[in-house]
Amino acid sequence: MTTFASGTDTLTRDALTVLQPGFPGTTAPDWLLRRLGEGLASVGLFGRNIASAEQLSSLTAQLRAERDDVLVAIDEEGGDVTRLEVRTGSSFPGNHALGAVDDVDVTREVAYELGRRLAACGVNLNWAPSADVNSNPSNPVIGVRSFGADPELVARHTAAYVTGLQAAGVAACTKHFPGHGDTAVDSHHALPRIDAESAVLERRELLPFRAAIAAGTRAVMSAHILVPTLDPDHPATLSPHILTGLLRGRLGYDGLIVTDGMEMQAIAATYGIERGSVLAIAAGADAICVGGGLADDETIRRLRDALVSAVRAGELPEERLAEAAERVRGLARWAATASASASAEGVAPAPDVTRVDIGLVAARRALTVTGAEAFTPLTEPPYVALLAPVANIAVGDETPWGVGAELTRTLPGTETGSFAGEAAGDAVLEAAGARRIVVVVRDEHRHPWMAAALDTVLAARPDTVVVEMGIPQAAPRGALHIATHGAARVCGRAAAEVVAGA
Fold first, then answer.
1. Which residues does residue 222 pair with via DSSP β-bridges, in sequence order?
2. What's the distance, Cα to Cα, between the start and end of the chain in Å?
3. Is the distance from CB of 172 to CB of 208 less than 8 angstroms?
4. Cβ atoms within 10 A of the Cβ of 317, count?
5. Is the pTM of this model over 0.90?
6. Cis geometry, peptide bond prior to residue 129 (ω within 30 degrees of 0)
7. What pLDDT score does 333 carry?
């Protein structure tokens, strides 16, 4: 039963309702439960909050014991960005692999199965899918999180993903509006800028969002990017022209608008999270996402008080805050109904091989293999050299990737090492000794040191196998080249099957 603490006024409750904070640990702290009693309506989960499916179910039950209609959100894209399987790697390939398969039925099935697992753990809002068109191959933050560089492909798979996820009773949050694909800067670190003309934006960035809206996406996440053609002064998250004029007005979207994380430097370092949150709600956003980096009661208090003070000072219309809060509550009502409907319709049918293994099936189909005709599968344990770039913040560095663990299952005795920097190539050769070498790269085209290391290894050992687990922009090379289109655990398994002939 939903309860509100006595003495909590409507304005304060509304200010709490529009916040989507995170918290540390695998159980809800007392301060979070208290805020739920005072009006907080959403909670965001990250990898730090999840140890197992059973623990996650207990956590969400703990939250709902305090407020039965709470929205429990998570950043679970599958592929490289996974929270459910943060310590093992995802059972589902990410968007780029699904785009490489280009079968909307597979995308819909993957999203449905992922949504079913989320719903079973009590999660009802997923900050996914990414509808960004990765038109800039050097993009440091989107990359394999995008279905691809073709707007029409991205549009049809975005719609399929939204449909599949929501059929499982989990609200989709399509991101990052109006499109983060043509950026060369990571908004976690600074404010990116897209200098594209209106006609380009219309046929490229906006096409997938139109498809998501037509598919009924229940939420849209704004991007912390500056698009001067749309608004020369404000990033999208803080722009009335973009959120209200374009998204609500021209595109006709009437669902929940969620901001990207307000502690990201694109906002925090330019406006500050308090001022940024006020401007975001005033611009048309309905929910403030914060908690990836700031996850404490003090942050909730600061943002609540900033919103209340802005209303009392006449800087934020009370009606706008009330409208935003009602959209949050409206999504909570939809989620409760959708979850019940999905359960009644049999969201968890009797297991069959297609549904249970849909992630692996998709990962296998996503492979692009060059040189297979002349390649003899390995029968002796190789040396796996991981040329590891610094992970972007969205992906994080907790999740293992590569093919070493999967090859070890087939070829016991396989050894793995991680390398980076100018001397990486020579270090790989020394570590490998006489063993056959498998080099695993991630976005070779974006890292000159990685390409140079591969040059060194291939010059000395031309029989080296190369596995590219990022965007396969560089030309294939090696005795065998496998492009997995992502670094999910199932992508590693699919590649290992080819290498070992399993």
1. 177
2. 53
3. no
4. 13
5. yes
6. yes
7. 95
For every residue of 387-417, DSSP letters joined together read: E-PPPPTTT-SSS--SSHHHHHHHSTT-EEE
CA distance 219 to 212: 10
pLDDT of residue 1: 32
> What is the distance between the alpha carbons of residues 337 and 206, in angstroms, rounded to a whole number?
30
Give strand pairing partners of 370.
Answer: 481
Active site residues: 188, 260
CB 456 within 8 Å of CB 429: yes
Q: Which amino acid is at 465?
A: V
> Could you tell me the two tokens for 436?
């056959």
- In 3D space, the residue among 167, 162, 80, 65 whose CA is nearest the CA of residue 122 turns out to be 65
Report residues of the chain scoring pLDDT below 70: 1-8, 342-356, 392-394, 396
pLDDT for res 62: 97
Cα separation of 422 and 430, whole Å? 15
Pairing of strands 368-370, 480-483: antiparallel
Task: Measure Cα distances from 303 to 76, 279, 471 in Å.
Answer: 25, 12, 38
Alpha helix stretches (DSSP H) within 345-395: 353-356, 358-366
Structure tokens belonging to residue 224: 């912390």
Joined tokens for residue 249? 């007005």
Which residue spans within 94-238 are E strands per DSSP?
Answer: 125-126, 171-177, 219-222
Residue 264 φ then ψ, to 5°: -65, 145
Asked if 93 contacts 501 with a C-beta cutoff of 8 angstroms, the reply is: no
The predicted-structure confidence for 34-73, as pLDDT tens digits, reads as follows 999 999 999 999 999 999 999 999 999 999 999 999 999 9
| Contact (Cβ atoms closer than 8 angstroms) between residue 262 and residue 288 | yes
CA separation (Å) from 242 to 30, 208, 260, 283? 38, 16, 15, 8
What local confidence, expressed as pLDDT, does residue 95 receive? Answer: 98
Handedness of CA 105, 110, 111, 112 (dihedral sign): positive
178, HSE (Cβ side, Cα atoms, 13 Å): 34
